[in-house]
Design brief:
The complex is a heterotrimer of chains A (339), B (247) and C (292). Chain A is 31% helix and 22% strand. Chain A has 339 residues and is α/β, with parallel strands linked by helices. Chain A has 2 domains: 4-217, 3-Layer(aba) Sandwich (Rossmann fold); 238-321, no CATH class. In chain A, a hairpin with a 1-residue loop joins strand 1 (4-15) and strand 2. Chain B is globular. Helices cover 34% and strands 23% of the residues of chain B. In chain B, strand 7 (155-159), helix 6 (167-184) and strand 8 form a beta-alpha-beta unit. In chain B, the strands form 2 sheets. A 6-stranded mixed sheet of chain B has the order 6-7-8-3-9-10, with helices on both faces. By secondary structure, chain B is α/β, with parallel strands linked by helices. With 292 residues, chain C is mostly helical. Chain C has a domain at 88-230 and 263-290: MetI-like fold. Helix content of chain C is 71%, strand content 0%. Chain C has helices spanning 3-9, 25-47, 79-115, 117-132, 135-145, 150-176, 180-187, 192-228, 240-246, 256-290. The chains are: A alpha/beta (339), B alpha/beta (247), C mainly alpha (292).
Chain lengths: 339, 247, 292
């Protein structure tokens, strides 16, 4: 399997004038790994993934290059033709992603048959195999069901099977479990990870849920206001976050370890809309460590380790400190500013 | 004090009751969390508590009086819904929405009070003429709270108040709820599936599964030593994030 | 090519009349046509002789004849004058019908949707009934009994036109009444009226607006159609349908008596439909912006 990469992918949206909503993202994905794309709403994670597969909504356009399946695609159209072959997408709401009028078996098999990727028996066998691996006990029965007869967890697993039918090199899962209950969520993600690794697919896991991302991803890419602020090995990034935004995000996660009835740390304010992106560092207005340089100059990623996996953070503070990791500052309790 | 006594709700053509035999009491200033997954009956229970639906059996009373929403009467029980964009009318200004419980008052007084309430929840009062779409999810959830508070509620029912919000904003809203509750001393019924939120806000917890109460204890006890298998399952599924610390 | 690119590619032209709704081609086109037609109507009122004025010496004058830009009919009546009056009649009837039918339809739809029960059942049976009876039969029956004036015509057409509003508003209401803001409004002490008028009515207003603008086309055709059959507007008022009927027999020799009023009617209906489509697009975009 070859490399999967996004090179200088930029997405613009038209609100009056064209504005950047995703700003020059470079991403290299290794087969058999899961990369978590983390960010809050408006950070651009969904638009970025849609740009990769050429499914951008109206009023948006992309530029850059996508490398997939040994070919290069211009981001203006994205790897649209690769959908269903080399690239696949699993979306948030499984029930709406499935055709309500077709049985599971037909839906699973249709795509690969129509694209001429497999013969009938092979497709059938693969569908059965995937469903089996996804934890269905009575595969025969499930194949005959209609989507409305499936529970949320079952439907999402069927969607995953659907995505994996053509053995894609790139699998994008976009908040695949927000519509599911907590315990089913874990199971589905475990299965996605297992299968993806086995099939040697490169998985991009888009989520705003840090705990999930931490459990299921090998690498993390933290997105804020359309750009990558930090990326690296998951344990690295979550254990020793270098960028103030990552630190703040981890610091304010609401978990069962919280102190009861005590205020949580939070990040004051909200992410800026594309019209309001500041000239310098995009996080500066909310950053407790910001200084003049941050307001004036946009930070470039500072490489933090020399291993083959990129580990960098785009922050002036980090740049000054260099690769040596100082003790990360815990974000102090923010006085809540007015909206 | 809110007292819920052996409340059940059965819908016709359903094999099992949506809610079966729930009882609890809640004093002012305290928070009870109702935890469960989708389909467990949480929302049905929330609707009954607030008075929108009548239980098929059992009683819900506030200070001894039966709870029932009536047209034209401001309810002492108010609700904060999950999706702030759903909870506010998209075509009216936020000032209009927040001022709804205050319809009886003269216009000037109402405006002033709306301004006060918005400031109280951290929204610039000068923005009261703007429509919901001009605000972010977190800001709107504050507006929703301001509107609930305009009614001077004795009980606030929060139905998944932070599930639709970003991580960094969730913390803000939870802090807001804590602060407001300590100032205004309303009772709070928190309906959620998120155990982290429960940990921060609740003093008592009630776990619902398929309409029935599986466990009901003070939060500290429940988190330290859960009794029911189901509770243990729920807790296990939410292993916390790796905390920021030394490498 | 996107509209944006096309606009940029064309040489800039100075338009003397500025239309609102920048970028909404359909809507602007519809408005432009409507305004042009209304201008013709005004012109007729102001500059032309009355359409009643008969001039038998000049019967069947061709378009372009002196004093008769669009020719005359068999009685020497000026076609352009008739058209300009006809435009006003058509628009007046359309406006009257749309206002009455939308008000009635929305009110019934809101109540049926929100309260359900008996009101809802009655409405649904009424809808079934209306689907079973062709409106034309109704009009024929009414014409036999009533003296048709513009007002009765408006009422008659409204009587069959309010049902689509009621149905549409009912279904939207069924959805909206489950929304969070309705629940919280009840808790905030809103009365039933307040919920219907203050909350639900604004929410249905956009779809009603679109329906109304699309209905205008139908009403225009109904008015002309009935007038054509002699069941609608008759002299002393001048309807487009009426003159078309008048000119029917002499189509061979004086085509302009039928074709020109017909073209005017077609343009009106086209304008109405374009405006309706344009409004719908505008609202759809508005919705898309709001749903981030």
């Amino acid at each position: 399997m070859s490399v999967v990469a996004a090179r200088s992918v930029t997405v613009e949206a038209r609100r009056g004038t064209w504005r950047r909503v995703v700003d020059t993202i470079d991403l290299e994905l290794e087969p058999g790994t899961v990369v978590g794309l983390v960010g809050e709403s408006g950070a651009g994670k969904t638009l970025f993934t849609r740009a990769l597969v050429g499914l951008l909504p109206g009023g948006t356009r992309a530029s850059g290059t996508i490398v997939l399946g040994g070919r290069e695609y211009d981001a203006r159209k994205g790897a649209r033709s690769a959908l269903g072959r080399d690239a696949a997408l699993v979306q948030q709401n499984p029930i709406t992603a499935l055709d309500p009028l077709a049985r599971v078996r037909k839906q699973l098999v249709d795509g690969v048959l129509r694209l001429g990727l497999m013969k009938h028996e092979a497709a059938d066998a693969r569908a059965r195999e995937l469903l089996g691996r996804l934890g269905f006990n009575d595969v025969e029965r499930v194949l005959r069901l209609y989507p409305h007869q499936l529970s949320g967890g079952m439907a999402q697993r069927v969607c995953v099977a659907l995505a994996l039918m053509p053995s894609p090199e790139l699998l994008i899962v976009d908040e695949p479990t927000s519509a599911l209950d907590a315990n089913v969520r874990v199971r589905v993600l475990e299965l996605i990870r297992e299968l993806a690794i086995e099939q040697r697919a490169a998985v991009v896991f888009v989520s705003h849920d840090l705990s999930l991302v931490g459990r299921f991803c090998d690498r993390l890419v933290v997105l804020y206001a359309g750009r990558i602020v930090e990326q690296g090995d998951t344990t690295d990034v979550m254990g020793v976050p270098r960028h103030p935004y990552t630190q703040a995000l981890l610091g304010c996660a609401v978990t069962t370890e919280a102190v009861p009835r005590q205020p949580l740390t939070s990040i004051a304010g909200a992410p800026p809309a594309p019209e309001e992106w500041p000239a310098g560092c995009v996080f500066a207005p909310r950053c407790p460590h910001a200084w003049e340089r941050c307001v004036a100059e946009r930070p470039q990623p500072t490489v933090l380790s020399s291993s083959h996996q990129p580990r960098d953070a785009a922050c002036h503070l980090v740049e000054e400190a260099g690769a040596a990791a100082p003790r990360p500052q815990l974000v102090t309790k923010e006085v809540e500013r007015r909206a | 004090m809110l007292s819920v006594t052996d409340v059940s709700r059965r819908y016709p053509r359903m094999s099992r009751p949506a809610v079966a035999g729930v009882s609890f009491e809640l004093d002012r200033g305290r928070t009870l969390a109702i935890v469960g997954e989708s389909g467990a009956g949480k929302s049905t229970l929330a609707r009954m508590i607030v008075g929108l639906e009548r239980p098929t059996s059992g009683q819900i009373a506030l200070d001894g009086r039966d709870v029932r929403t009536r047209y034209g009467t401001v309810s002492p029980l108010q609700m904060v819904v999950q999706n702030p964009f759903d909870g506010l009318h998209p075509l009216h200004s936020i000032g209009w929405s927040v001022g709804e419980p205050l319809r009886r008052r003269p216009r000037r007084e109402r405006r002033a009070r709306v301004g006060e309430l918005l400031e109280l929840v951290g929204i610039d009062a000068r923005r009261m003429g703007e429509r919901p779409r001009a605000f972010s999810g977190g800001q709107l959830q504050r507006v929703v709270m301001a509107r609930a508070l305009a009614a001077d509620p004795q009980v606030l029912i929060c139905d998944e108040p932070t599930s639709a919000l970003d991580v960094s904003v969730q913390a803000q809203i939870l802090n807001l709820i804590l602060r407001l509750q300590s100032e205004l001393q309303f009772a709070c019924v928190l309906v959620t599936h998120d155990l982290g939120v429960v940990r921060v806000l609740a003093e008592d917890v009630l776990v619902l599964k398929d309409g029935a109460v599986v466990e009901q204890r003070p939060a500290n006890d429940l988190f330290a030593a859960p009794e029911a298998d189901y509770t243990r399952e729920l807790l296990a599924a939410e292993r916390p994030v790796v905390a920021v610390g030394e490498s | 090519m996107t509209a944006h690119a096309v606009r940029e590619a064309l040489p800039a032209r100075r338009a003397r009349v500025r239309l609102p709704f920048k970028g909404q081609t359909t809507l602007r086109l519809g408005l432009a046509i409507l305004l042009a037609m209304m201008a013709v109507g005004v012109l007729g009122r102001v500059a032309l002789p009355s359409a009643d004025q008969q001039d038998l010496a000049n019967a069947f004058a061709a378009p372009g004849s002196p004093g008769h830009l669009l020719g005359t009919d068999q009685l020497g009546r000026d076609v352009l004058a008739w058209i300009s009056d006809g435009i006003w009649i058509a628009l007046a009837v359309a406006l009257g019908v749309v206002v009455i039918s939308s008000v009635v339809g929305v009110a019934v739809g809101l109540c049926a949707g929100y309260f359900g029960g008996v009101a809802d059942m009655l409405l649904m049976r009424l809808v079934d009934l209306s689907l079973a009876i062709p409106p034309l039969i109704l009009f024929l029956a009414a014409a036999a009994v009533l003296r048709t004036s513009i007002v009765t015509l408006i009422l008659l057409i409204s009587a069959v036109s309010w049902l689509p509003y009621a149905r549409l508003v009912r279904s939207v209401t069924l959805l909206e009444r489950e929304r969070g803001y309705v629940i919280t409004a009840r808790l905030a002490g809103a009365s039933r009226t307040r919920i219907l008028v203050g909350h639900l009515l604004p929410s249905v207003s956009t779809v009603v607006l679109v329906l109304a603008s699309l209905q205008v086309g139908y009403v225009l055709l109904w008015e002309s159609g009935l007038s054509f059959l002699g069941l609608g507007v008759r002299p002393p008022h001048h309807s487009l349908g009426y003159i078309i009927a008048q000119g029917r027999d002499s189509l061979q020799q004086a085509w302009w008596v039928v074709v020109l009023p017909g073209a005017a009617l077609a343009l009106l209906v086209l304008a109405a439909n374009l405006i309706g489509d344009g409004l719908r697009d505008l609202i759809q975009q508005d919705v898309e912006v709001a749903e981030r």
